[in-house]
């Protein structure tokens, strides 16, 4: 699971919809791996528009990175250092194993073999 | 407006018009395709300029190429007469009079010609008197003679063509440039028995109007055929599937991700997640540029969701193991139960109505037994306009590509939910009972 993907997923339990704690999930006991990929600044710029920046900061902090700016970077087309950092964080950082916890219902989801699983037990699947 | 000739592919002729319309719309090109005839390999269209013609055909899967039309005839004599008497001939010729060029001959149902026979045909065009050099490799212009032959009673082509066209090549399609072979399933590092074939995957991505930077979602991703076909057109792709093992692939270098490395577009792949579509984990304000899928109510896989109907299994999630509730443990396996296809389709339409950008498309394939009352089985949602229902016929069943456009709140379309649908689509059960009458339930 790419770091980027953490910005797209919430708790799958229906009764958590709309609750603040269901997004982003809290990432615990994660094993990270850097997987090199070609740097494409244009891709990062366009992806940035889709991101919830507060969630990026929160998940980065869960994973031990507290160096991100508090505001979403703007007009960074020419800022190649920042773009490279974001490329490395969003695209190259893989969570290969770990836990994702909903802050609202406390349900625990697992990441195994780099794949995040959101399958629910019968009493939570509606 | 100028006349252009499209040479169509002889594959899925019933789908060709929808693809051209989708590509025209995607490129903002106004064009009338009402001349399209599924029996006929050529289509005449009027377009503003070469640029429109180029774009219209560039990524087409069910067309071969497009030509600026210089003349038409029912015989070679008539073709030459019409070219010579084309009032516009000098204007058509003038820009290319000194270009390097070659001639080419394409036929529909015609036999192969020897090089000498071809040269004889080309020589008869010498009256065009181009001054440029003939160049076989990468000439500036290619002039093409396209011939249509009919078959005789013996099913062999007749000696003479019954329709001929002459024109200047503007562009060849992705198909003619080998895209279908490139995406051949068996060449991929990872594929499976349910992988959707290359030609129709690419076609579906065209119908979905996937374009550069669009976020494309396949909720029943399997081995990722629609992800790679959408990435080919610049889509940024993400998928989910309830089967963890499918996502895990067949080994360290045989996963969906490896297919993207193989096609050299790894940036166009975001992720695949293990998910029950009906308990979806994507945040609600994540908006997709297209949703494309082949839901698993096919032959090999039934529809499954998380949950259990087995009395003996219910409650097991709450057993304490080593002081921890079973369902919170890493090794807990979530039970799955069968789900109705009709309910799944309701869920798919509702999800699409909430998550698609306005003007974007939902495209999915649905198989049905041919003895069912099919129109009553097609789901509809008031914010989704059903624009195509493309039928691929098999012997006792058919597969349909249903295409919907997301409209805004002011659009008030038809709603047909599962409870309003008269037929019950139990395709899978009927398939296994060989579509017998007895297996048809009401």
From TrEMBL, chain A:
GO terms for molecular function: protein heterodimerization activity. Its main location: cytoplasm. GO terms for cellular component: cytoplasm; nucleus. Coiled coil: none annotated. GO terms for biological process: rRNA (guanine-N7)-methylation; tRNA methylation. It is found in: Cytoplasm; Nucleus. Keywords: Cytoplasm, Nucleus. Pfam families: Trm112p (PF03966). The keyword Kinase does not apply. It comes from the Eukaryota. Belongs to the TRM112 family. This is Multifunctional methyltransferase subunit trm112.
UniProtKB/TrEMBL annotation, chain B:
It comes from Pichia californica. GO terms for biological process: methylation; tRNA processing. Its main location: cytoplasm. Keywords: Cytoplasm, Methyltransferase, RNA-binding, S-adenosyl-L-methionine, Transferase, tRNA processing, tRNA-binding. It is found in: Cytoplasm. This is tRNA (guanine(10)-N(2))-methyltransferase. Belongs to the class I-like SAM-binding methyltransferase superfamily. TRM11 methyltransferase family. It comes from the Eukaryota.
């Amino acid at each position: 699971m790419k770091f980027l993907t953490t910005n797209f997923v919430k708790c799958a339990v229906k009764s958590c919809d709309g609750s603040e704690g269901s997004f982003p999930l809290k990432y615990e006991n994660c094993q990270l791996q850097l997987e090199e990929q070609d740097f494409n600044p244009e891709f990062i710029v366009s992806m940035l528009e889709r991101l919830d920046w507060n969630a990026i900061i929160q998940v980065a902090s869960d994973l031990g990175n507290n160096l991100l700016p508090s505001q979403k970077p703007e007009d960074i087309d020419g800022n190649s250092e920042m773009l490279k950092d974001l490329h490395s964080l969003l695209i190259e950082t893989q969570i290969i194993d770990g836990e994702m916890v909903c802050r609202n219902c406390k349900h625990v989801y697992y990441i195994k073999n780099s794949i995040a699983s959101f399958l629910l037990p019968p009493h939570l699947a509606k | 407006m100028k006349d252009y000739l499209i040479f169509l592919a002889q594959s899925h002729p019933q789908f060709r018009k929808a693809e051209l319309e989708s590509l025209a719309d995607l490129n903002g090109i106004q064009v009338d395709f009402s001349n399209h005839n599924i029996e006929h390999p050529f289509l005449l269209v009027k377009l503003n300029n070469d640029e429109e013609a180029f774009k219209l055909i560039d990524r087409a899967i069910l067309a071969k190429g497009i030509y600026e039309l210089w003349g038409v005839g029912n015989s070679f004599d008539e073709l030459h007469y019409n070219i010579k008497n084309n009032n516009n001939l000098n204007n058509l010729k003038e820009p290319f009079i000194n270009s390097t060029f070659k001639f080419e001959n394409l036929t529909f149902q015609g036999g192969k010609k020897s090089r000498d026979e071809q040269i004889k045909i080309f020589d008869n065009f010498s009256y065009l008197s181009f001054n440029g050099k003939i160049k076989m490799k990468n000439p500036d212009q290619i002039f093409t003679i396209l011939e249509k032959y009919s078959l005789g009673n013996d099913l062999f082509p007749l000696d003479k063509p019954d329709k001929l066209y002459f024109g200047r090549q503007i562009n060849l399609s992705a198909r003619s440039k080998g895209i279908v072979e490139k995406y051949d399933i068996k060449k991929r590092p990872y594929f499976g028995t349910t992988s959707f074939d290359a030609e129709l995957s690419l076609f579906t991505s065209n119908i979905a109007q996937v374009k550069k930077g669009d976020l494309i979602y396949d909720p029943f991703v399997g081995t990722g055929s629609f992800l790679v076909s959408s990435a080919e057109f610049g889509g940024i792709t993400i998928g989910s599937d309830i089967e963890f093992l499918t996502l895990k692939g067949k080994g360290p270098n045989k996963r969906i991700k490896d297919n993207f490395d193989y096609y050299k577009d790894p940036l166009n792949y975001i992720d695949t997640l293990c998910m029950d579509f009906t308990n979806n984990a994507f945040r609600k304000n994540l908006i997709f540029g297209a949703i494309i899928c082949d839901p698993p109510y096919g032959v090999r896989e039934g529809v499954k969701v998380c949950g259990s109907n087995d009395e003996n299994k219910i409650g097991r999630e709450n057993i304490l193991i080593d002081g921890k509730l079973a369902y919170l443990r890493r090794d807990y396996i979530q039970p799955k139960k069968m789900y109705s296809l009709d309910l799944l389709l309701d869920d798919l339409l509702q999800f699409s109505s909430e998550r698609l950008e306005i003007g974007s498309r939902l495209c999915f394939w649905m198989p049905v037994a041919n003895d069912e009352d099919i129109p009553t089985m097609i789901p509809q949602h008031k914010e989704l306009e059903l624009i195509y229902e493309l039928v691929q016929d098999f012997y006792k069943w058919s597969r349909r590509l249903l295409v919907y456009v997301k409209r805004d709140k002011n659009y008030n379309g038809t709603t047909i939910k599962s409870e309003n649908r008269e037929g019950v689509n139990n395709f899978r059960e009927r398939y296994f009972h060989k579509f017998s009458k007895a297996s048809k339930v009401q």
